Amino acid sequence: KADAIATKAAPATVNRKLAVLRRVARLAYRQWGWLDSPVGDRITLLPGERQRHVFLTRDQVGKLAKHATGAVRDAILLAAMTGLRRGEILNLQPADRRDGTLVLRDTKNGRPRMVPLPAEALKIRLPLEITSNELEHWFRVARRKAGIQVRFHDLRHTYASWLVQSGASLTVVRDLLGHSSLAVTSRYAHLAHEHLRAAVDGMERGWKRRTKSKKHG
Question: Do residues 72 and 130 lie in contact, with contact meaning Cβ atoms separated by under 8 Å?
């Protein structure tokens, strides 16, 4: 960490490396039994990283998938419909799908999580049988053809945005994405603005109806 700061590396660059170290440390403690204490929980990321979040519409995801084929198309749809990370998608096996739900055990935070699948995602055959490098290459090709400047990880953010905009609570979003805390999930809170406004408007209408009823009573 000190060496990276000394060379003036960007916070995002340092944090990517720290995140890998934190995940390995957590797995070593929670699953592998290599550590006697939760060292990973003490690894903190640097402040000052500029967050980049791109949220696609359903039409944009469809356009992106249309310009991909085979396993690449399936990976795009899975990412947008489940919020799974690239590695999680590539590691999926038929046994991970049970009663219409994906059961993930080897997760980033070391805790299992369950992700219900939409009907469209149930049609995708597992495993995808594609390497990470192949997926990255052909995803870039599809992205260029679709004319959409997006990273594969943005599909995960897109899934979260759809959940929030459909009225899902941040707690639900946290559990589906496998975040370590609500503080991580709170980055999507602003997307709930319209639903918060609708909820307050609904409360106001109810208050007016009660007031009017009392007057006539």
Answer: yes
- For residues 100 and 85, what is the distance between their CA atoms, to the nearest angstrom? 19
Residue 148 phi, psi (nearest 5): -120, 120
Crossing angle between the packed helical segments 154-165 and 58-66, to the nearest 10 degrees: 150
Amino acid at 26: R
The contacts of residue 32 (CB under 8 Å, 6+ apart) are: none
In angstroms, the Cα distances linking 156 to 7, 27, 86, 186, 199 are 31, 22, 9, 15, 27
Residue type, 148: I
What is the 3-state secondary structure of 124-166? CCCCCCCCHHHHHHHHHHHHHHHCCCCCCCHHHHHHHHHHHHC
Backbone angles phi, psi at 155, to 5 degrees: -65, -30
pTM higher than the cut 0.85:
no
- Chain centroid, CA 120 distance in Å: 18
Task: Return the closest-CA partner of residue 25 out of 37, 12, 10, 7.
Answer: 37
Q: What percent of the chain has pLDDT over 70?
A: 81
Query: How far apart are the C-alpha atoms of 178 and 83, rounded to whole Å?
Result: 9
Interval 148-193: pLDDT, tens = 999 999 999 999 989 988 888 889 999 999 887 777 788 787 776 6
Please, which residues have CB within 8 angstroms of residue 95's CB and are 6 or more apart in sequence? none
In whole angstroms, give the CA distance from residue 190 to residue 183: 13
